[in-house]
Amino acid sequence: MDFLHWYIASLRSLVPGALRRPAGQDAAMTVTAAAGAPPEAAEITQEGRGGARALGRLGQMRRSAVIRPVVLRLRGAGALIRRVTLPAAARRDLAAALAFEIDRLTPFTADEVLVTHEILARDNAQGLLHVRLAVLPRAWIADLLAALDEAGLAAVRIEAASAEGEAVFALPGARRQSRVPPALALLAAGLAVLCLAIPPARQALALHRLDAARAALAPRLRLAEALRGRLAAEDRFRAALGAEAAREGDTLLMLSALTRALPDRSYLTDLSLRDRVATLDGESPNAAGLVARLAADPHFADPAFAAPVTRSLNGGGDVFSIRVRLRDDEAG
Predict the structure, then answer these.
(1) Same domain, 27 and 163
(2) Which Gene3D superfamilies does this UniProt record tie to the protein (predicted)?
(3) CB within 8 Å of 5: residues ≥ 6 apart
(4) What's the confidence (pLDDT) of residue 274?
(5) Residues 127/39, Cβ–Cβ less than 8 Å
(6) Phi, psi for 136 (deg, rounded to 5)
(7) Which residues span the domain enclosing 285?
(8) Which of 63, 217, 89 is nearest to 150 (CA)?
């Protein structure tokens, strides 16, 4: 319907002003309602170039083809007006702060009233904000708004005056609506459908072209992803080797140094390495001399027997278990 309103308004803008509206109908009408009076008794006036002109009572109005905007003036049934003081920080979300004040100061909730406010003063020294708050319960004007709708009128602004003062409430949801001929409505509907169909069709065509281009590039993309995965795996493997070498030391360097340190007729039956500490199990003609040789080697530090030395079964040598640490500057 928004498109229809825009389309009709565009057509009307092409009509000369003298033909667009009857004389005296170029300003919004005013509906004045008194407190306690029935809605049908509200007085309607038209502000024109020659001044205000009485149009009669609301109950006498016939509904027209065009919903006309009016200003609703309430006399004797004014808004509830309060002066509230808020922290200056409340200005960032003043609507929420005022909703809380409405719940606190009135028997209504924020959803049950029309609200308007005016910032009266800012006290920067004390960090306060002085606000004039006015609320108008929707229930007070529900029958009057329904009567306006029955007469083909829509309130765009409400002016409520009472002993506490006057407050003006805007009704942004009210707007002019038109009844259009069926042929024009059908034409506008067809244009609307066309306007709604073109963007999705263009988008679908663009998506089809994009899918075709993506399908053509799919083999290259898969090859690139496979290469990227292989390179990432190799990088992770090298990183793991580097981390393990940094933690345990260079195994090849340790084996080379042990080969040089072991004297003739000495051999190892077991070798383990954990956190740069090597445990050597084996047999040697002189186990004590082997500890001395390891202590003299620059690649090792703190050699010591991990278990008592025993003689081999054939009596040809010492069975030993030696624990030795790899030096940090030589490991890895």
Answers:
(1) yes
(2) 3.30.420.380
(3) 175, 176, 177, 178
(4) 83
(5) no
(6) -130, 110
(7) 247-326
(8) 63
Let me know if residue 224 belongs to a domain: no
Domain check: are 270 and 144 in the same one?
A: no
Does the pTM exceed 0.70? no
- Closest by CA position to 76, among listed 42, 120, 103: 42
Q: How far is CA 46 from the centre of its chain?
A: 48
Structure tokens given for 106: 């009135």
CA terminus-to-terminus distance, the chain: 78
Long-range pairs of 100-107 with CB within 8 A, sequence gap ≥ 24 = 101/133, 102/133, 102/135, 105/133, 106/80, 106/82, 106/135
Of 299, 265, 260, which is closest to residue 282 (Cα–Cα)? Answer: 265
pLDDT of residue 67: 76
CB atoms within 10 A of CB 169: 20
Label each residue of 91-158 as H, E or C: HHHHHHHHHHHHHHHCCCCHHHEEEEEEEEEEECCCCEEEEEEEEEEHHHHHHHHHHHHHCCEEEEEE
Whether residues 170 and 253 fall in one domain = no
pLDDT of residue 174: 53
Q: What is the CATH number of the domain that holds 261?
A: 3.30.1360.100
Mean pLDDT by 10 residues, the chain (332 residues): 58 50 53 83 80 80 76 81 88 88 88 88 90 88 86 86 81 54 74 81 87 89 89 86 67 80 84 86 87 87 90 83 80 44
Tell me what pLDDT residue 173 has. Answer: 58
How many other β-carbons are positioned within 10 Å of the β-carbon of residue 167?
25
pLDDT in the model for residue 285: 87
* Per-residue tokens: 313: 């079964």
Distances (CA, A) of 330 to 57, 239, 246, 297: 107, 20, 11, 11
* Burial grade of 267 (CB within 10 A; 0-12, 13-18, 19 or more): exposed
The pLDDT of residue 246 is 66
Domains in the chain, number: 2
